[in-house]
């Protein structure tokens, strides 16, 4: 009996051990970033401090090394940073000497407001989708087919949506400012840019689960007993959302990653923009401190979601009676949708093949010319064919997407067999902004 209790205690502690371990791994990798890249951060730091005003002399570079103690080994610097971080001291910036903790505190409130507004919009948009599904169910038109709109919204990255929103609402219509953080009007575009992909994913998951719940036998029994649609909808929602809480947490964590690109595009002084600037200038104290805050925030969201799910379901979590959250696949029965999809796919193939036959690198037109028969999409700032460049980029993106999808499938299957041990890795990889992973 004591052995079983010990085993249960170990299993409950394992996710936290995993989280702490991978937090440490990320901190070490960030500290090793200059060594892994084979670069000397001294030049970048000096350039960030003085721009082009100071020459990169050996004396100036050595003064920076002496000031920041960069001549010490990486292991010594990492140990000092970890020891200070355990005491709540995240150090000072290598560029301007300000306190890292104060900088994070000043920018975190901005990012938190942006994330909160994005979550509110996501909930509002998803609620509309939810009631649309319920409305179809009441009229006997509930279909197990997926809404293609949600798939499109999920596929669009935040920075693409942000660019489109700026083009439409800031440049064409002039309703909202294209950048800045001065008033409530600056909150709309970045919040919508973050909320749209999150809405697509959340509404897809919720509606799939809700359709399966509304097709269960108990719904027919309750209808026969003249129980109101409101009561049935309320219990159906609780049953549908109960097993989606961890996925909802992952969506919220993903908002922190998408916020980095959005903050950069809209010039929002948030923690994501601060971290990105620190990565460019090799300001390791700010980079380590900012990522640490984001990852701890991600772990808190995930842990809270697990606690909420346990409070909602109790023993049902281990009963095997939950609704599966996987999406069933089937081709549409609508001929209009099928022919439209085939037509779009054929157009993309013809577009790509035609563009690949053109030269995307040679300057052959005047700069920034308008679209014409010779240059269907015009030319760029140095006269290259934009049509050819888009086609070449499509092929590169397609190859990268296929490889990333395959690797995600393989790694996901492997981690799925050891969820307790990989819990920290899953939360941290989701919490690290994707735009940071290229540095």
Automatic annotation (TrEMBL):
The chain crosses the membrane at residues 20-39, 112-132, 152-175, 187-206, 244-266, 286-308, 338-357, 400-418. One of its GO terms (cellular component) is plasma membrane. The keyword Secreted does not apply. It is a multi-pass membrane protein. Its main location: membrane. It is found in: Cell membrane. Keywords: Cell membrane, Membrane, Transmembrane, Transmembrane helix, Transport. Residues 137-311 form the ABC transmembrane type-1 domain. GO terms for biological process: transmembrane transport. It comes from the Bacteria. InterPro entries: MetI-like. It holds the Pfam family BPD_transp_1. This is Dipeptide transport system permease protein dppC. It comes from Vibrio ishigakensis. The lineage of its organism: Bacteria, Pseudomonadati, Pseudomonadota, Gammaproteobacteria, Vibrionales.
